[in-house]
Write a structure and sequence with these properties.
Elements lengths: L1 H47 L6 E6 L14 E6 H4 L5 H17 L4 E2 L3 E2 H6 L1 H18 L5 H10 L14 H15 L1 H5 L7 H9 L1 H13 L9
Parallel strand pairs: 1-2
Antiparallel strand pairs: 3-4
Helix pairs in contact: 1-3, 3-5, 3-6, 5-7, 6-7, 6-9
């Protein structure tokens, strides 16, 4: 009886060891797939936009900074698992990367094109948040990615705060409104031929942005040049 129990324990241990080993292998393969995907998309955006500043891209499951080599000749953009999980396709991953590339490229040497310092970004983070959103859309379009994915991803990934008065970030609804206005104004083709129109994420954006889009429609009809104060 003792031998049978011993054999059962050995068999039990071997079974679970093999199961965990397979799970570890699958996890590693998935990590490699995510890393390659992120690198390929990131390099495509850099090359299409002729960005000469060298950057590398990293995938991480953990929400902590991955240390890279110091120096102004290299920047590392890290995409965490908590961000990627909201992305449904390559366009949405490109939206995340384009946003990070836009921010990194503009402040590559600590200054925005040698005019605006990083200290000014910290002093007016909301202003530059909207600027980087617009730059990200340009980067996406130049790399043949659909900028509507910027709307669908942002709508899924960033929760709506009650107020933004004391926050360093704009309300997500405000960001989405300015993103929509920018695409409508500069890249109307993508809205006229909207492949995301019937997706749940885009339909939810339409539902939750009715008032802001009314303001924008009024601006178009009136021919006003004033900057809209979205909510």
């Amino acid at each position: 009886m003792n031998k049978i129990i011993a054999l059962f324990i050995v068999f039990f241990c071997m079974f679970f060891y093999k199961a965990f080993a397979i799970e570890d292998i699958n996890s590693v393969l998935n990590d490699i797939k995510n890393q390659n995907n992120i690198t390929n998309i990131g390099l495509k955006i850099l090359n299409a936009n002729k960005i000469e500043n060298r950057m590398i891209f990293a995938y991480s499951k953990e929400d902590k900074l991955i240390k890279g080599e110091p120096g102004l000749t290299q920047r590392q953009i890290v995409l965490y698992d908590k961000l990627i999980k909201y992305a449904s396709d390559e366009n949405e991953i490109a939206a995340i990367l384009a946003r990070e590339i836009a921010k990194s490229n503009e402040s590559y040497s600590g200054k925005l094109r040698g005019i605006v310092s990083s200290a000014q970004i910290k002093a007016a983070p909301k202003k530059f948040e909207l600027l980087f959103d617009k730059r990200a859309i340009d980067l996406m379009v130049n790399a043949d990615y659909n900028p509507i994915a910027f709307i669908t991803y942002t709508n899924k990934a960033y929760p709506q705060k009650r107020y933004d008065l004391f926050s360093s970030h704009n309300l997500t609804s405000k960001r989405l409104a300015y993103i929509y206005e920018y695409i409508y104004t500069k890249y109307p083709y993508y809205l006229k031929n909207n492949e995301y129109l019937f997706s749940d994420a885009y339909q939810n954006f339409l539902l939750t942005s009715i008032e802001n889009r009314k303001k924008f429609q009024h601006k178009i009809e009136s021919g006003s040049k004033e900057i809209i104060k979205y909510e």
